[in-house]
Write the structure tokens for this entry.
Amino acid sequence: MANLSFIFAVPPGGQLRRKQRVGASISAFPARRPSSHAVWRSRLAMTATTAPPRKHQQRPWSPGSWRTMPIKQVPDYPDQAELERVEQRLRKSVPLVYTGEGAKLKSLLAKASRGEAFVLQGGDCAESFAEFEKYGGENIRDTFLLLIQMSIMLMYGLGLPVVKIGRMAGQFAKPRSSPVEREKNKVLELPTYRGDMINGPEFTAEARVPDPHRMLTAYHQSTATINLVRSLAHGGFVDLHRIHDINLEFVNGTPQGKRFLEYATRITDALKFMSSCGLQADSPMVRQAEFFVSHEALLLPYEEALVRRCEITGKHYATSAHMLWCGDRTRQPDGAHVEFLRGIANPIGIKCGPTLSDAELLQLLDTLNPNNEPGRITLITRVGAGKVREHLPRLIEAVRRSGHVVTWSCDPMHGNTVATPSGIKTRNFDDILSEVKDFFQVHQEMGTFPGGIHLEMTGRNVTECVGGMNKLSHDDLRTCFESQCDPRLNASQSLELAFLLSEFMSGKCAI
């Protein structure tokens, strides 16, 4: 539970002028032979340096100063007065997270930037009102449980604490490549679906009208999600003494489930050994999990309304999540989204696609982290299989020359979306694995730290991505394709990826 002395009390005041749119880390196990990753990490630490703070003059910032900047990926609300009323209600709402939690996450991400921790960030492509109602929170529980399973495998294999961050409790809006769409083989063209926080997925003119009241529904569902996750993380649900119970039902009996149980048996033996030696094996780190939530900062009226000023530090925080990221389509250095993010004290992610130039990246780093604060910036690369060696080395070299401190993470999902002959969007497990492998190999070759992975995944037994050990094919996609947007790895595929990564980083296998 967060220290309540960090609770916010002073919301940003006043309406601001609008402008017309212009477009449970566990490391207390018996000592093992150092993994290849640990040896590599210690070797790099001897040469690591931190650049002095980079300070330069910036224009004044306020929670609403983004309204004076060019903006992309914004819905056109027909009723501005109703939008303002919803924003006012959100301004008076309780914060979803607290400053102390955001500061703690920043310190953990700083460790990942030094190779002292690993970041596992994952969850839905876009959260759904209908899925929440259909499953009654079971979908959230299953995704949380899957992230815990994956983190256990990675912790044991890498010998590092794993920072667990969910894409949940706010991931309701999505950037789109086109403002309009049409059903397959249909003439009717409608505004594109932008996520449940903005409009509806049904292909009707009424559903596609942006509705500000959807922000309130998203806020209340996010509140329920965070409450559930806190209960699971701190209520004994992930106690490592009952690690054999931490397994999704449909994964039991599969090769992936059996591999996890092998890890579980080793951990149980380690805990028994600690107890027999008189060592403490019932600390909160063993019985609880530290878990954070994140989403893309896309719908800025929602984000601004949930900004609060910390009375202790005087800093502004976005209380909609512990961590926010700037998408590849909204990372313009002079744009509204970057303007909003530069003034909040939360950890920030930047999606780095193949079109991002070295100069633009450095401009973003200077704007978003002028004091070069470790843990502030996570660079999430998303370039696609077969393109990592073309783009990642130049980005690493540019950051290294500049002296900026960043945490590197790999998003192997967004650059690998394809369409089947029948028009269904999917992703191939082999492409995802290939991008992850190249990401880690490039960092090893360049002497930098691969700090984490960022996945679109679910704990449900969906059939949205092809391949993996179960060899899902295009014909299987219609069996259980539930995502309203992009395809997600299911639990078996996610566990398989975590296992392969763990084995690769510990030097036990090549992927």
About this structure: Residues 36-44+80-238+288-505 form a domain with the TIM Barrel fold (CATH 3.20.20.70). DSSP finds 14 helices and 14 strands in the chain. Residues 213-234 form the longest helix (22 residues).
